[in-house]
Fold this protein.
Amino acid sequence: MLPTVHGAKHAIIVEGELVAYVAAARYDHMIAEFLRTAQRLEQLRGSRADTPTEPAAFDDACEAAISIENQGWMARWVSDQNS
């Protein structure tokens, strides 16, 4: 039996809601990653104020924190591209 026009509209709405939910979940994950990186950078800044280090060591630690975050989204992006 073919779906009615009303049933087809309902299916499209449900599909749209599902796509929006998946996209929102992805953004929630990204926000969590960004906040974790921001927290790590704040910790580094605070520890530098408490015990000054060489500028190069501080820069390396900051770059490492950002690099870890970048690896996460790049791995996710590659995975999405292969799906």
User: Anything to note?
Assistant: Residues 5-82 form one domain. The helical segments are 5-50, 55-82. The mean pLDDT is 81.
